[in-house]
Amino acid sequence: MASAAAAGAPSGPAAPKSRRSVTGTRKVVAALFLLPALVLLGALVLYPIGYSLVRSLYDSSGDQFAGFDNYQALFTDDGIRTALKNNVIWVVFAPTVSTALGLVFAVLTERVRWGTAFKLVVFMPMAISMLAAGIIFRLVYDQDPDKGVANAVWVGVHDSFAQASAFPKAHPGRESPLVGQGGAFVTKDPVKAGTPVALPMVGVAPDQFPDDAKRAVTARPEPGKVTGTVWQDFTRGKGVGKLGAPDATERGYDGMRIEAVKDGKVVASAKAAGDGTFTLPASADGAQLRLPAANFKEAYNGVDWLGPALVTPAIIGSYVWMWAGFAMVLIAAGLAGVPRELLEQARVDGASEWQVFRKVTVPLLAPVLAVVTVTLMINVLKVFDLVYIIAPGSSQDDANVLALELYRKGFSEGRPGVASAIAVFLLLLVIPVMLFNIRRLRREGRR
What is the pLDDT of residues 204-256, one digit of tens each? Predict the structure, then answer.
């Protein structure tokens, strides 16, 4: 009976249970574990953002309230406007080119046996800091072809089609029969057949002579023809050698072009031999001899990569060199998840490889391409190191970007209020891109 009564009696109130999260962890414990991260987030992110926002409303001293004057400077200061224009160029081209190259590398290396080694080489620049990469490319873009790799290649290709003169600094010496004429040199008097002509020149260093240049000799007279010698009329040592005549150590101007001119027209031409001698036909009799300006054309020195016109594209090139590997690795990971049967089906249906790539591979990789592009867009909005290191002082204004201008305004010009306004403006530019990326990731997660 007692047990039956006890069994029928209503049970008392249940003991309260601890509140737990979805994963079964107590919320208090979870909060304690998150607290250090939240403190660091507040100290390293939230506080600097809040302080920059407040500081942007004050003048350079930090005592006077300036309102939106610092933000007005963003659209009136020439340096900031140039930086903003360059940032637009960076955002448009750097992520696009890097992603495109990464896509090409990922697709092509998928079919080669040594694809892994190639990916390793392409990705290797990511292990280099921006500072080190900037120093590397400052040397690559050096104007001197003997130092800069870019100009060494460019000059080599150029000189393969348009050989530079070997005598860019040559000019007539003392007692020379030549006078200047618009970059060329012309004899003062007409020449006569059968009488050798001496055309002494100076100004070429001995080590600048062609390797096949020979010892200069006096030309022999030839009946009915104009002969002569063009040579370097200089011998080292005071009082050594004779002016106006080839000496034992003096060499001829091999390949020097000589023209015979009558009434402003070229009637004959010749090139000097290795010993400096030349021969003109009888039509040159009574003409003036001219050494064309092409003989003295300065050597091609390459492209001014870091000049005002090309400095921004050159720096973007160095950025692409670093980040194309990053894009390639992410796209290759996405490509590994593409169903192979879709690609094979397209080929069976008669699609070419280009059509498979354009109409099947790229659409399937669109989410990955969006992630890479957006990530690089956020990255280029903050680019600073490469521009600061690569751009020389003479063209740094032309390569200026917002992050660099922030540094210059805050530390070089002593205008922290404007620098803080630039920082807030950069944050406002990054936020829409980040929100787009977050929304896209959430949409992908719901699929």
Answer: 877 777 766 788 888 899 988 999 999 888 876 655 567 778 888 888 888 88
Rounded Cα distance, 184 and 290, in Å:
7
Q: Are 202 and 235 in contact (CB under 8 A)?
A: no
Average pLDDT estimate for 156-162: 78
Query: What structural domains and CATH numbers belong to the chain?
Result: 77-153+305-414 (1.10.3720.10), 171-296 (no CATH)
Report yes or no: 425 and 87 within 8 Å, Cβ to Cβ.
no
- Per the DSSP assignment, residues forming a β-bridge with 62 are none
Confidence of residue 109 (pLDDT cuts 50, 70, 90): confident
Residue 331: which of 124, 100, 116 has the closest Cα? 100
Whole-angstrom Cα distance, residue 374 to residue 384?
18
Tokens standing for 47? 């506080």
DSSP 22-91: TTS-BHHHHHHHHHHHHHHHIIIIIHHHHHHHHHTTB-TTSSSB-TTHHHHHHHH-HHHHHHHHHHHHHH
- How far from the centroid of its chain's Cα atoms is residue 363's Cα? 31
For range 368-384, the mean pLDDT: 91
- Cα(196)–Cα(177) distance, integer angstroms: 13
- Res 2: pLDDT: 45
- Return d(Cα 377, Cα 323) in angstroms, integer: 12
CB 419, CB 406: distance < 8 Å: yes
| Partners of residue 249 on adjacent β-strands | none
Backbone φ and ψ for 143, nearest 5 degrees, come out as -65, -35
What are the strands of the beta sheet with 197-202, ordered from one edge? 171-172, 197-202, 226-232, 277-280
pLDDT score at 98? 95
The number of C-alpha atoms within 13 Å of 137 and in the hemisphere containing its C-beta is 29
Per DSSP, 280 falls in state E
